[in-house]
Specification:
A five-stranded antiparallel beta sheet has the order 1-2-3-4-5, with no helix packed on it. The two termini are 69 Å apart. It is flat. Helix 1 packs antiparallel against helix 2 and helix 9 runs parallel beside helix 11. It contains twelve helices and five strands. It is of the alpha+beta class and 468 residues long.
């Protein structure tokens, strides 16, 4: 039996690795088409670009592994059924459940690995990926000079060159014209026969070395103070913020950048704040009612002994103001409580998601194994075609459930586990049919069902006519 189990597991390894590579490639291509143009426009180095995609591989792996389990089960059991090996195993007294058992054990191992991965690795990778994306967004593009085109992207400087030869780290230019407005009290214009431009990676400044030029400077406060200076060599250092990539650090983490333990702690803190706010509201309302709504007997006695009959109505004005103040305070507390409650829903959704997606590995085995046996083919096209419908149902349920839970329309548990429940029921149904060696839908059974309904309708009709 263990030899058979090793053989069945071995049949799944190749399709699983192939499927996870294909699915990961699809996610990576989507990420490339969405992010690469923006990244390349910032002039980033290749190691930094590779780091960006490597950090995003964490969430890709978390989603691709359950998908690959379904594809592998379909392909492996489809090939075994197509080669009549399933029939041979059944003839030897091996049931379908015993064939599926080793795959379920491996799927359980993958599920445990993904639970650890989603709580220990994925949050840190998501955190670092978000910080890196924000750093890339702040970085200025590299200096892209064009011959004969005025360059205005430098702060307080305008640059024009007539000829340019670029190397990986330096641009050699001829016929340089620079308009310097860095000093608000003066206007400076510089021309030079030649020069070179490069970025200093240490201080993030743009260095421009000019040769054989002339500098014209006009004092805007004293227009008669004009000077012209010729120079054999002139060095300009222009500070360009964010031209050099700077890595940032942040202690703040979003929902998808936290482990389940961190989010549970936050939910506990939020529940304490909700309880404190609720007690505060109850105390305010109790004190208000005790102050302005005394017992009925004391209210009648006070009105009867009042020297001025209008004394009680005159108290309505401060009472109204006090009621408005209380209403504003209660409204603010209610808004605070609703915000915390909604935040708890979002956190609980992420907590359940870290466990529901790994458990899908087991669910997909229950679906993929019997479907592969019924299909009796082990091709990738067949596996992809059958898997697509389940992927569509599963991920649509997850996305829709997350949206509904964030709006507090359904519980976080149902939002993240309903897809597993539905697909799991379908998987158990398919396994039972495979165990009984029945077809998925027996036409004879369906025909007998409708004939029975027709006969019952025919019997009921005369009885109704007799009564009328």
């Amino acid at each position: 039996m263990y030899t058979l189990w090793r053989y069945i597991i071995k049949e799944h390894i190749g399709p699983f690795l192939f499927a996870i590579c294909v699915i990961s490639l699809v996610f990576i291509l989507n990420l490339v088409f969405r992010e690469l143009p923006r990244i390349l426009s910032r002039g980033l180095d290749l190691p930094l670009i590779l780091e960006f995609f490597a950090l995003n591989m964490a969430w890709i792996v978390a989603l691709a592994v359950p998908m690959a389990v379904l594809v592998a089960a379909l392909m492996a059991f489809g090939r075994l059924a197509g080669d009549n090996e399933i029939v041979a195993m059944k003839a030897s007294g091996i049931s379908v459940l015993r064939m599926i058992t080793p795959v379920l054990i491996c799927a359980a191992g993958l599920a445990l690995f993904l639970i650890w991965f989603n709580n220990q690795v994925l949050p840190d990778f998501n955190h670092r990926a978000r910080l890196l994306a924000s750093d890339i967004a702040r970085k200025r593009p590299t200096l892209s000079l064009e011959a004969g085109v005025i360059y205005r992207d430098l702060p307080n400087y305008t640059l024009l060159v007539q000829h340019i030869v670029e190397t990986p780290d330096t641009a050699y230019v001829d016929s340089v014209y620079i308009d310097d407005n860095s000093n608000p009290n003066s206007s400076t214009f510089i021309t030079a026969d030649r020069g070179k431009i490069y970025l200093n990676p240490r201080n993030g400044q743009l260095s421009i070395i000019l040769y054989d030029g002339v500098m014209y400077e006009l004092n805007l406060e004293e227009m008669e103070a004009y000077r012209q200076l010729r120079f054999p060599k002139q060095v300009l250092s222009i500070s360009v913020p964010d031209m050099v990539m700077e890595r940032s650090e942040s202690e703040y983490r979003g929902d998808r950048e936290k482990s389940s333990a961190m989010m549970r702690d936050e939910v506990t803190v939020n529940n304490r704040e909700i309880a404190t706010a609720s007690a505060r509201m109850a105390k305010k309302m109790h004190a208000h009612f005790a102050r302005y709504l005394p017992p009925p007997d004391s209210l009648l006695t006070a009105g009867a002994h009042a020297e001025n009959p209008l004394a009680l109505p005159l108290q309505a004005s401060p009472l109204l103001a006090e009621n408005q103040r209380l209403r504003q305070e209660i409204t603010a507390d209610l808004s605070f409580v609703r915000g915390l409650d909604r935040k708890n829903y979002q956190l609980l959704v992420e907590i359940h998601k870290k466990y529901s997606i790994p458990v899908a590995c087991l669910i997909f085995v229950l679906v993929g194994a019997p479907l592969g046996m019924m299909a009796r083919r082990g091709s990738m096209a067949m596996a992809a075609g059958i898997s697509f419908s389940f992927f569509l149902l599963y991920w649509a349920s997850l996305i829709g459930g997350e949206e509904l839970a964030d709006e507090q329309l359904i519980s976080p548990f149902m939002a993240m586990w309903l897809a597993n429940i539905i697909v799991g029921i379908a998987g158990i149904y398919l396994v039972l049919y495979a165990v009984r060696e029945s077809t998925l839908f027996n036409p004879e059974t369906i025909r007998n069902f409708f004939n029975r309904i027709r006969s019952l309708a025919g019997v009921a009709a005369p009885e109704e006519n007799g009564k009328t």
